[in-house]
Design brief:
homodimer; alpha/beta; 6-stranded parallel sheet; 4-stranded parallel sheet; 42% helix; elongated; DNA-binding
DNA sequence: GGAGTGAACGAGAACGCTAACTTTGCGACA
DNA sequence: TGTCGCAAAGTTAGCGTTCTCGTTCACTCC
């Protein structure tokens, strides 16, 4: 049983110095493996520091070194597998590069986002990777004004004029839609969450382009927008639930498309459930195309065709860029925008 | 378009002071809304600070105030929905209490965990909430020795002697097993991941107890352990895959239990797939009981019976306890251990 | 009109650490 | 034996804040 030592005054360099009868400076040199200390003294100092439980004060240290080495990640939620991958990979990259990661969740709430950005600012982060709630520059300018490097991913804010990395949602919209059209669909329905973000807009554009290529007119009846719900912790349950409900209502209303193209795999999951309930078969009666290739997609019955997103790659490029900006190894005056190609994964739900 | 001001020297209190022709002290008072500054001067200072983009140096500030206000969360991965909920809720609680959250992922890797703890220490966190990779005290003592409050969740290390909050896995093991036994199963098989942690041990204990209550002997043939795989980002895919494979191999080997009780819903998902492939019907031919009530569980065909875990409640109590320790509002000498009851969710996969 | 009062602001120290510079001391060498 | 050189250690300053204590100055009041 290890003694719990709570409430004790925190040990300082001076404490160690007094304990070994040397100056604080020597102790500092010894512990930081700087030259100018004999091996014997160094060992003695390290042992003593260990013994009395000395932990360097990070604030004092970074006050003089000027390097907090922390990046902030402001993201809507981590329940979404895509953001989950994003954050995991950013954490991994940051860890490797010796950076800490301050996690801030905005919950799709603009006010919460504003506070998150403020927190990042107050926490003294070196840089920020963000996924905005809305397409408005406003809360983020607090960072750019303070001269803190900012990189956005997944959701774009062109007027901000900062670097942006994302999967190519327009291409994805085309790819998924084309896949069902090439398999004979003539009346596909796109189901999306109603978010004021570039992602949805780009996907709808891609959807529309694919339709036009196939000579099918685009109108609002082909595009069902589901009101978005906040609170990240149950977002995925709700999405499946919403997918279920929207299809049930559609069928009740007598509308029966010959293909569903949806904004994420959880929507598709709910949709499966609603179709099964009505005895409508996939893919015989209707094709279903998901988005995201979540872990469960290939285990559904039938396995779900979907779009695999390059979340890891997006995270990698975004962090690499941020680190480059932090190193000043790159001129940040010309904002970089990169779209990474997603990959179509065809499974039985679109077989025909 | 907002000007991007990179590479500029960071503004200091002194810069603001010189700009307005006052002392740094007065500027500090003005910006912190302390008395002793006239309203006019205060407004002028704030405007100027805003104009030149002054952001207080958090390190200088917390060096003197002695309050970093950050908690570290060391967890294996956030792809697991349970940990996802845990981290989301901790973030929420921390945010509300004015704390920052430093996220550290250990990836089920003891070495990575050791480094994560070291990082938390170096980052100067006020306290830590941890989910250990193993049941060994060793890496965590670095925190307790430094006098940094530590609370563990989900996975226990009794010899550490720190507070622990978890769902009651033993009870959960009993509840899930009893559910299938009460529905006629006489030859249930438990599938678990082979992790050296208290969680798995407790669940197996619960399983065994339920069997004994029903007069069924427990032996190793009733308990299939799947080797654990690292790398958090694909952990969920792999779990489903493993679930698929283990059942396929079992069937190939001529073993056919009358119920599966599994360690998480992703395993159940893979299992569904394997059973479907062989034409084995759920629940007619075999009962399936999951664990975790992941978002997809109720949308499967048939909807999956499972155990809903009180992840939010666990997170809440753990953070509440940590904050109490940080406030010194509670004596931390007597470690607290709390087990919160899970809730059985019965769906069609165990109907009989 | 001079003492007392209180608001507005300034000077200096302190937080814990690191870096530049200085001092000490011991052995080698002429 | 005195001096030079170099390793080992100490001294001092400074990072950007906040806090404590002073100082200034206008204003009231007898």
């Amino acid at each position: 049983m290890v003694a719990r030592s709570r409430g004790q005054r925190r040990r300082t360099l001076q404490d160690v110095a007094e304990a070994v009868g040397l100056s604080a400076n020597t102790v500092s040199r010894a512990l930081n493996d700087m030259p100018g200390v004999s091996a014997a003294t160094r060992a003695r100092i390290k042992a003593e520091a260990e013994r009395i439980g000395y932990v360097p004060n990070v604030h004092a240290r970074s006050l003089v070194l000027g390097s907090p080495k922390t990046i902030g990640v402001v993201v809507t939620d981590i329940a979404n597998p895509y953001f989950n991958d994003l954050v995991s990979e950013i954490e991994d990259q940051a860890f490797t590069a010796g950076y800490n990661l301050l996690l801030l969740l905005s919950d799709e709430d603009p006010e919460r986002e504003r506070l998150a950005i403020e927190t990042a600012l107050r926490a003294g982060v070196d840089g920020v990777i963000g996924v905005p709630v809305q397409g408005r520059a406003n809360p983020w300018t607090a960072l750019t004004r303070a001269g803190i490097p900012l990189v956005l991913t997944t959701r774009e804010i062109p007027e901000l004029g900062v670097d942006f990395f994302s999967n190519d949602n327009e291409a994805g919209g085309r790819m998924t839609t084309n896949a069902v059209l090439e398999r004979g669909a003539r009346d596909p329905l796109l189901i999306e969450e109603d978010l004021q973000i570039s992602t949805v807009e780009h996907r709808i554009n891609g959807f529309r382009q694919a339709l036009e290529e196939h000579g099918i007119p685009f109108d609002s009846r082909r595009n069902e927008l589901i009101p978005s719900r906040r609170n990240a912790r149950s977002a995925m349950h709700w999405r499946a639930e919403d997918g279920y409900r929207v299809v049930r209502d559609l069928l009740d209303g007598g509308r029966m498309p010959d293909a569903f193209v949806v904004g994420n795999d959880y929507l598709a999951l709910g949709l499966y459930s609603a179709l099964r309930e009505r005895g409508i078969r996939i893919p015989e009666d209707v094709l279903v195309m998901g988005w995201g290739d979540y872990a469960f997609a290939r285990f559904l019955d039938p396995p779900l065709s979907t779009l695999r997103l390059p979340s890891i790659e997006v995270a990698r490029r975004a962090t690499a860029r941020l680190f480059a900006l932090l190193d000043n190894s790159v001129a940040g005056d010309e904002p970089v925008t990169e779209f990474i190609q997603p990959e179509l994964v065809l499974r039985a739900s679109t077989n025909r």
